[in-house]
Write a structure and sequence with these properties.
The longest helix has 31 residues. The mean pLDDT is 97. By secondary structure, this protein is α/β, with parallel strands linked by helices. The protein contains 15 helices and 13 strands. Strands 2-10-9-8-7-3-4 form a seven-stranded mixed sheet, with helices on both faces. Strands 1-12 form a two-stranded parallel ribbon. The radius of gyration is 21 Å and the shape is globular. Bound molecules: (2S)-2-hydroxybutanedioic acid (LMR).
Length: 398
């Protein structure tokens, strides 16, 4: 039976990670997968996370099952990180948060939930969007369409075209937005643009679904959820998938959550049963370790303060690197305008070079980036910036 299987290409982002690891060039630079890196190019465990792990190791008394919806205290705590205390209180039992195996698991859970609510639903993703959004959501059997989002020429959001497209949608359409730090382009919606989308959702009746994988890595923990909170307080229904991979550095611990806001408590109670059943049939229940760390950090004043400081350092480093990269490009005589990189948010921006130029950077210079020219800004450091910019300068001339 197995002989009939066809080999599949590597995932565009994870395949790049494997190629980078296998490359022996001492000058290699990893601008591929979205993991935070410090000045030494390492992705260390955050000190607050290490301390929480240590406490858990010494205090945990059982490894018994948690349950398909995960730990109730974690769900309440990450719900509050997302929505804030007063909104949590006012939403009451209309809000359900379910622990998930990372952001991907949360997205898949949300996809199953959408499918059970409306098997004919269409999910509208931004053009472009994260490389795994379409495969992940489509594999749950959902129809996928895209709306205009990023203008490669002006490096800004094609907001008028986006609105023209969304204005034609209605019930049964689900619009997937990036909560902050758009992956892959780094161009985020402004506050007035979020307000316009809120108005349109109310007018047209489409459902909003937000992927929030980078809270705290754009402008700040509160600033980055402006859109999420605005929509949560105004819309009858909302889906938000949040991830602790980046802001807690818990990548391999698979720690995330799916939050659903329903128009009544009764519907939310039913929704919880649907999400729990989806979890049970796919993976039974989420892994506990990462969630226990997050729960402990967010509920302990000292650990929370320490985590906040570490996250702020990460954010400031990324924003500083954006400015440093643009300035290096200018001082090394590249005439093309890359100043947009300084305006964009989070880990990613497009370099805006073509596929041949990307391939040359990868194959001739061991500088790893996705074919779309997306770079992870956090992969830049003082040791590699000169080599990066001089290689870019050479490739731009080809
Ligand atoms: C990325 O976009 O590089 C990250 O979200 C990691 C991943 O799983 O693709």
């Amino acid at each position: 039976m197995f002989q009939s299987l066809k080999s599949l290409p590597a995932d565009p982002i994870l395949g790049l990670m494997a190629s980078y690891r296998a490359d022996n060039n001492p000058k290699k630079i990893d601008l591929g997968i979205g993991v935070y890196k410090n000045e030494n190019g390492d992705t260390p465990i955050m000190t607050s996370v290490k301390k929480a792990e240590d406490l858990i190791l010494h205090s945990q008394t059982s490894k018994s099952y948690v349950g398909p919806t995960g730990a109730a205290d974690y769900n309440a705590t990450v719900g509050e990180l997302l929505l804030g205390k007063s909104l949590m209180d006012s939403l009451g039992k209309r809000r359900v948060t379910v622990q998930s195996p990372g952001g991907c698991g949360g997205l898949r859970l949300a996809a199953e939930f959408i499918k059970s609510a409306n098997p004919n639903a269409t999910v509208w993703v931004s053009d472009p969007t994260w490389a795994n959004h379409v495969p992940l959501l489509a594999s749950a059997g959902l129809k996928i369409e895209s709306y205009p989002y990023y203008d490669y020429a002006s490096h800004s959001v094609r907001f008028d075209e986006m609105i023209d497209c969304l204005a034609k949608l209605g019930r049964g359409d689900v619009v997937l937005l990036h909560g902050c730090c758009h992956n892959p382009c780094g161009a985020d919606l402004s506050q007035p643009q979020w307000q316009r989308i809120r108005d349109l959702a109310l007018e047209c009746g489409f459902t909003v679904f937000i992927d929030l994988a980078y809270q705290g890595l754009g402008d700040g923990l509160e600033e980055d959820v402006y859109g999420v909170r605005l929509l949560a307080e105004s819309l009858p229904e909302l889906i938000v998938v949040s991830s602790c991979s980046k802001n807690f550095g818990l990548y391999r611990e698979r720690t995330g959550a799916t939050t659903v806001i329903c128009d009544s408590e009764a519907v939310a109670t039913v929704a919880t049963t649907q999400i729990a059943a989806a979890a049970r049939t796919m993976y039974s229940m989420p892994p506990d370790h990462g969630a226990a760390i997050v729960q402990l950090i967010l509920s302990d004043a000292d650990l929370r303060k320490e985590w906040d400081t570490e996250l702020t350092e990460m954010r400031n480093r990324i924003n500083g690197l954006r400015a440093q990269f643009v300035s290096k490009i200018q001082t090394m005589g590249i005439s093309e305008d890359f100043s947009f990189i300084e305006r964009e948010k989070g880990m990613f921006s497009f370099l805006g070079v073509n596929v041949d130029q990307v391939q040359s950077l990868v194959n001739d210079y061991s500088i790893y980036l996705v074919n779309s020219s997306r770079i992870n800004v956090a992969g830049i450091n003082n040791q590699n910036i000169e080599y990066l910019v001089s290689s870019l300068a050479t490739v731009l001339k080809t």
